[in-house]
UniProtKB/TrEMBL annotation:
The keyword DNA damage does not apply. The lineage of its organism: Bacteria, Bacillati, Actinomycetota, Actinomycetes, Kitasatosporales. Keywords: FAD, Flavoprotein, Oxidoreductase. It holds the Pfam family Acyl-CoA_dh_1. This is Acyl-CoA dehydrogenase/oxidase C-terminal domain-containing protein. It comes from the Bacteria.
Amino acid sequence: MTTFLVEKEPGFGEVRPGLTIPGKIDKMGYKGVDTTELIMDGLRVPADRVLGGVTGRGFYQMMDGVEVGRVNVAARGCGVAQRAFELGVRYAQQRHTFGKPIAQHQAIQFKLAEMATKVEAAHAMMVNAARKKDSGERNDLEAGMAKYLAAEYCKEVVEDAFRIHGGYGFSKEYEIERLYREAPMLLIGEGTAEIQKMIIGRRLLEEYRFQG
């Protein structure tokens, strides 16, 4: 596999001979990032556009990009979860039922405790994966674990914050509604949970190979 750099003019339609960019894809979340397709039909690229100047390195370049991407998605999951927790713990102190803030009800305190613990655990694993990547060491195991845990915990923390908000969480007037739409992308970006578990399982068997 060989990777090429392909330049294009801004905009949509046929942006250069052989390369067409259709219109934006309308998404449930991640509105701040445009998403579209690349349609290549008869596209020709000069040989000097080979990434790194050496052919046959595409697979390794892609895998390196995927590892960075998984740490990136983990970091985004940590950020969304952190914000969801902040919104949840704030609203729990503002909303009153039975004469006191719902934050004083044991059920809500348990939920907040679980949310905060998940935020901290995901953040620690993400930082560990990022540091290993920065060091130049192999980090596909750590990146896979961080992406898997942070994305799953993000979904759970956001949903708990959504539940704490009650009916208000369904209203676009409250920020938690947007976070509820953002979280699903992290579950599938840079590989689903099933893909991450396959990678983690294979790497663990390499690392802890039984010599019998």
